[in-house]
Amino acid sequence: MNTLTLKNLVVYIEKEKFTPQNYERQMAYLQENTPFFQKVVFLEPENAAGLFDLSDMAATICLTTSPDMAKQMQGLGIAVLGFQAEEDEMMQANYVVLSLEQVTYQDFVRVFERYHGIPWQILETKRCRLREFCMDDLDDLFALYAKPHVTDFIEPLYEYEQERLYEETYIERIYGFYGFGMWLVFEKDSGKLIGRAGLEYREPCREGEAELGYLITPEHWRKGYATEVCQAILSYAKDELGMERIISHVDERNLASRQFLGKMGFQGKQMPDEWIYSYNL
Q1: Which of 15, 37, 190, 208 could hold 244 in an S-S bridge, CB 3.0 to 4.6 Å?
Q2: 3-class SS at 263?
Q3: 95-97 and 128-131 as β-strands: parallel, antiparallel, unpaired?
Q4: In the chain, where does DSSP find H-type helix?
Q5: Cα separation, 181 vs 174, whole angstroms
Q6: Residues 181-211: tens digit of each pLDDT
Q7: DSSP string for residues in 196-219
Q8: Domain ranges within the chain, ordered by starting residue
């Protein structure tokens, strides 16, 4: 797994694109984040060479209002958070903000990690850590799904090469677009992969809804891991993602899962061949 960490911030803001009052306000918002970086470089047109004072450009993110600068930075392998100051401007960056008011240091970290293919750390519970899948996890994922009873009521993985291609696409199009998906569950004490859980947008989910999925290895059943993880995910869905309702589809034969969701406070509705559970956040 890529262990690169964010250290430096390069800022190239075109002052002429703002009113004096708005410029001062945006810089004040930015100053709230600069203490978290080891080094911050403010570039001006006449001193753009200041970038090369940085000893580790790969550990750098650039905040800029300039589409040309964004393109140049990415050409150097530097992550970019675009700051679009003019409505008709096309910013050459995967992530763009219209104001710095709500931007936190964690937002810079997330943009940096996505650019470099580093899986996001999602949340922690008392005994577990949840993070995104990365391709280095593929063999462990197959080992997880090979355990007895894991796929009794869920779809198995594809054949190895097909699953590899599927997961590469999932990282790009699901994590990359939605910012959430199915995550890996690691036990803190052992560091071992013990499950998979998360949220996905699937039809017929409406706006503000997502589907909860979860699996825990059999050796960790009846120890409260599923409850601990899923309660944390519900809180994350409400507090971090702004969701209003979570649903879950359960095979009608899966009595353990049906009972589990009932204890979690979900309301169930019987459908042909399955139960659909819902939970208002």
Answers
A1: 208
A2: helix
A3: unpaired
A4: 20-31, 67-75, 105-115, 138-145, 160-170, 176-178, 225-239, 255-263
A5: 6
A6: 999 999 999 999 999 999 999 877 888 999 9
A7: EEEEE--TT--TTEEEEEEEE-GG
A8: 8-115, 121-280
Tokens of 218: 């059999």
Beta bridge partners of 213: 198
Q: What is the pLDDT of residues 125-158, one digit of tens each?
A: 999 999 999 999 999 999 999 999 999 999 999 9
Angle at 114 between CA 199 and CA 28, to 5 degrees: 105
Q: Are 63 and 30 in contact (CB under 8 A)?
A: yes
CB atoms within 10 A of CB 85: 20
Architecture of the domain defined by 121-280? 3-Layer(aba) Sandwich (3.40)
Determine the CATH number of domain 8-115: 3.40.50.2300
Are 146 and 152 within 8 A, CB to CB? no
Whose tokens are 């054949």? That residue is: 159
Closest of 210, 208, 152 to residue 181, by C-alpha: 210
Residue 181 zone, left/alpha/beta (φ > 0; ψ -120 to 50; rest): left
What are the residues whose beta carbons fall under 8 Å from the beta carbon of 159, sequence distance 6 or more? none
Whole-number Å distance between alpha carbons of 69 and 80:
9
Distance CA 23, CA 248 (A): 46
First to last CA, the chain: 34
- Tokens standing for residue 96: 């763009």
